[in-house]
Amino acid sequence: MRTKWISIKKLKAHEFNTTLRKLHRGENTWARRFEILSALEENATQHFIKICGQILFAYLIVTSLRTENLLQIKIQDFEASVPVAFFLMVSSYIFLLASISFCHLSVAMSLKIGEVGRFLLPGFSTNVYSLLKGKKDDISLGLSEYQNPFISERLPVSRILSMAILLCILGSLIPLGAFGFFILQQQTILLLSDNINAVERTSAAFWCLLTSLSFVYVTVFHTPLPVKKNKRQIRWNFLWYLPNGVHPRIDSWLKDK
Description:
Blueprint: E1 4-6, H1 8-23, H2 30-65, E2 66-67, E3 70-75, E4 78-83, H3 84-117, H4 126-132, H5 157-171, H6 174-192, H7 198-222, E5 225-227, H8 231-239, E6 241-242, E7 245-246, H9 250-256
Antiparallel strand pairs: 1-5, 2-3, 3-4, 6-7
């Protein structure tokens, strides 16, 4: 049997679609699905941007307040210091949340794109439709892509502009990955340092592994993996009962058990 390769991302998208069909059977229209997926994508984007803001704040704290193995804060006569290993621990946790949030956003965007591709109507723009439905922060009218089957550009200017914007958006993810490498580097430096105690060293080692796991998690989440059919579940939870009786091969299935 030929091995199938499916990514976790596609499996999560399939799980969402099957659940949505069962919950909204009475209103399972394209407009309703588009509305749900638009809200899902918007919330996922806001959550991801919020975590990215926390990452930027953490980076500024580490780079501006660090003195050797301590973070020192001084406000007039008040002065406090915290071991940098503990703050890097928090930063690693935030980076892990950012990785999971990115995967969530990736699935939401894929679902939205797939739903848009299912509805093709001359003269109808899904971007403008979203704007007309009252999406306040929509900038569809400012995007260079348009739908007009009666004219074609002599130069693909609109497509080039769209690709340039897409590259800029993808490029904005580079600082996020760079922050992960920065945290990993700082934790490695602490591990090699002789001026920290056992608790800080153990913390740095554990969260160093967690930061590495974040990179692995995002990569594996989007990489197709080998899967096989679960024959037992397919036979006994789906195929065994037919409208006109039991499945004709049920005897051979019992022998396989």
